[in-house]
Specification:
mainly alpha; 10 helices
Length: about 300
């Protein structure tokens, strides 16, 4: 059921972008651009130093193109995961790049680069250009469904990590228990939903949530990617030809450096979100080894 719902919501997300692409054929007049206010979204905000502006862009790009890693969490439930998951990631990223580059071309053609500097909601401008005053209402509905798709995949994927940790004895055995009727990992799902609610309580704006989430993601990606050097040094999985890749070690080093740059940008622009992320990461890192040691003592 979750898979079917996700497929439908993903189609809605793609439909939204395709509608925005059709704005090149819009006939309704474009709304007037607000005057430059000197904020980060105004013209004065574009006068940032190059590297700081690039850092802002990297955070947004990481959020837009991220999510491919979630597919790995379904490895135990996918047929031929060694073949299916890499192909799914490759095709998915290719589709996303094509759609996002296309929509940016439309933004510049319809709205114009100069007007983009002061536009508050560029997607709303395109929808109003295409559908008139009702375009904003259509956009709000489709955006809500688009966000639901993101929430749905997060609720499908991340609790499976908690279930796997329970299987390895890091978390209590309750986190791997499944309901007999629907085969749902109830306690893992409940635990992750509780984490989401707590995050929403302590995060005041969408920007704060994105900075906090992307910072934690960046640390997780960088440290996870770095383990390939340890695995190869220990010759782990050589009998199954895993932990190998083309262009080693250049590829993982570029990957790690990119996410270190994203995390550094967030730390400079939003120190509190970065501080919370570091405290959470360090706390969970220590807790992992404490629980693992306790498990070994029991065994």
């Amino acid at each position: 059921m979750s898979s079917r719902v996700l497929n439908i919501l993903t189609c809605v997300k793609i439909l939204l972008i395709l509608l925005l692409l059709l704005a090149v054929f819009g006939k309704h007049p474009l709304p007037d651009s607000p005057p430059a206010t000197g904020t980060a979204t105004g013209a004065a905000g574009l006068q940032l130093p190059f590297w700081k502006a690039l850092g802002f862009a990297l955070v947004a790009a990481s959020f837009s193109y991220g999510g491919y890693q979630q597919t790995i969490n379904f490895g135990g439930e996918v047929r031929s995961p060694g073949r299916t998951i890499p192909r799914g990631i490759a095709f998915g990223i290719a589709i996303i790049i094509t759609l996002y580059l296309s929509i940016n071309v439309v933004y510049t053609q319809v709205i114009g680069f100069e007007r983009l500097k002061t536009a508050n909601s560029i997607a709303a401008i395109l929808m109003e250009h295409l559908f008139g005053p009702t375009g904003d209402a259509i956009l709000r509905v489709l955006m809500f469904l688009s966000v639901m798709a993101y929430v749905n995949v997060a609720l499908m994927s991340n609790p499976r990590v908690m279930s796997a940790m329970s299987t390895e004895g890091i978390l209590p055995s309750a986190f791997q228990q499944r309901s007999p009727k629907r085969d749902v990992i109830v306690w893992s799902l409940t635990g992750f939903a509780a984490v989401i609610i707590i995050t929403l309580i302590f995060s005041s704006t969408v920007e704060k949530i994105i900075n906090y989430s992307i910072f934690l993601d960046s640390i997780g990606f960088a440290t996870s990617a770095s383990t390939i050097f340890i695995m190869r040094r220990r010759k782990t999985g050589e009998d199954r030809d895993i932990y190998r890749m083309k262009l080693f070690p250049v590829m993982p080093l570029v990957f790690i450096l990119a996410y270190v740059c994203v995390a550094t940008s967030i730390a400079i622009n939003d120190p509190m979100s970065a501080l919370y992320g570091v405290l959470i990461f360090v706390g969970c890192f220590i807790l992992y080894f404490v629980l693992r040691k306790a498990r070994r003592a029991v065994n």
